[in-house]
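Need a sequence for this fold. Nothing fancy.
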């Protein structure tokens, strides 16, 4: 389906959609979606995504982590450095190739990630407390679908990736 929705669809609806996405992105960055008790529980977006990926997929090398996140290895290296410095991520030698580095979530990183997740869950519960369960499910499903489409779009050759768009 390769219709140009800007000419065949409701441009007013698309204008509203792009505006609301921009507002969401700004508000998410302003609060860093820190959840309840924002200052204490906020976490940089890049850090959250890296820690979350290591938690979900387990220890891995920089190249594998970069590939799984769809970003450049140099970006991962730059973003991981402060996480190692603060003790949230551990660098270890690969068990089969001592020259290779493996990144893994430290116990401190696991605790910090759970603290932030818990706070964010509480924020999501508060923001959607008047929603019906079906509305929460529909919003989550549509947001997941939107993010998947955006991710697929970024994977198209010739379309700039996130690391060339903004240094986060």
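Here you go.
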């Amino acid at each position: 389906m390769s219709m140009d929705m800007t000419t065949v669809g409701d441009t007013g609806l698309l204008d509203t959609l792009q505006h609301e996405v921009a507002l969401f992105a700004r508000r998410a960055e302003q609060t860093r979606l820190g959840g309840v008790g924002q200052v204490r529980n906020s976490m940089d977006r890049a850090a959250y995504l890296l820690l979350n990926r290591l938690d979900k997929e387990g220890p891995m090398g920089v190249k594998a982590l970069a590939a799984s996140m769809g970003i450049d290895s140099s970006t991962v290296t730059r973003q991981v450095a402060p996480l190692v410095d603060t003790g949230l991520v551990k660098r270890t030698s690969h068990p089969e190739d001592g020259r290779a580095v493996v990144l893994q979530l430290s116990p401190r990183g696991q605790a910090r990630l759970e603290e932030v997740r818990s706070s964010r869950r509480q924020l999501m519960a508060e923001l959607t407390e008047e929603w019906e369960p079906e509305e929460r499910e529909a919003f989550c499903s549509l947001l997941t679908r939107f993010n998947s489409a955006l991710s697929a779009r970024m994977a198209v050759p010739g379309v700039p990736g996130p690391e060339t768009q903004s240094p986060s």
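For context: Residues 36 and 126 are 9 Å apart (CA to CA).
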